[in-house]
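Example 3.2
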Amino acid sequence: MEQSLENLRKKAFTYAREAFQAHREQIFEAMHVINQCGDMARQSGLLALEGLAELWADEEGLTIEDSTFHGRYDEETLTYSLAGRDVPLKELLIFMVFKIVDASDRDTVGKEFLAQVEKNGCSGYEWLVAYLYLTGMLDIYAGQLPGNFYLYHRVMVPEEWLEDYDRYCQKMVLRWDERDKILRQEMVNESFEREFSVKRAFEKMFQEMESERLCYLLKELDYETLAAGTAFAGEAVRNRILEHMETRKIGLVIEEWSCKRNFGYHLSDILDAMDRMLILAGLAGGMGFGWGSFPCSEDGAAAGNSP
């Protein structure tokens, strides 16, 4: 694939002057569309691009086999409409977007893109457009940032149009940076909310749980889950769990804490452990056990404790 890609690059470079002299707006539109595809893929995943490709195919009157959306698109997808925009080689673009959704690896999808470019029979400035689409889609598949895309293609811009190119790209990158900041803040807020909600539920459950039930649950859980699940619980809850734990497990849990404190806990492991403890607590709560029939500890470490 690399040799074919290099051949395409050479053809694109050959027609770069013609492209920027007579078709500059179309080149910028092609880059804008690639940027939009990248935005959607970063925000919603590659699968979201399928709706985008179907929308564009509908607008072009192209037949879609096994349509998923059947002409019904959400508001976000509709904002990416190409209607009324001077976007070159739309059919090639649509083909590439469809392919990137189901791509198994970079080389395979790259070969399919190159074959379609040859089939389309590009001419003149279209070689540069095809090269932009192909490299842009491969960048999206690889999760590259848009700034890299613009810098990579800067070498193909004739000197007299570099200022226009840089000004356009700077606007696009700044716009993407602003969207990225908003997206990252939303993701952080969602993460914080999940962390706080899990911790609140965990502490409420195990602070208020009856002693007999708590002892039973602690026997059912392995020491690694117990150590991770209680590592960042409040001190009162952590101490209460220790008081109701078998002496043998207490030693293992403390040793696990000591080891992981030195090398660091992964927050996802802690939240997963808390979730497992909460799930088991919920399941056990619906089993109708007579909790008094379970001794609090085989070795008597926490026998007789009250909630």
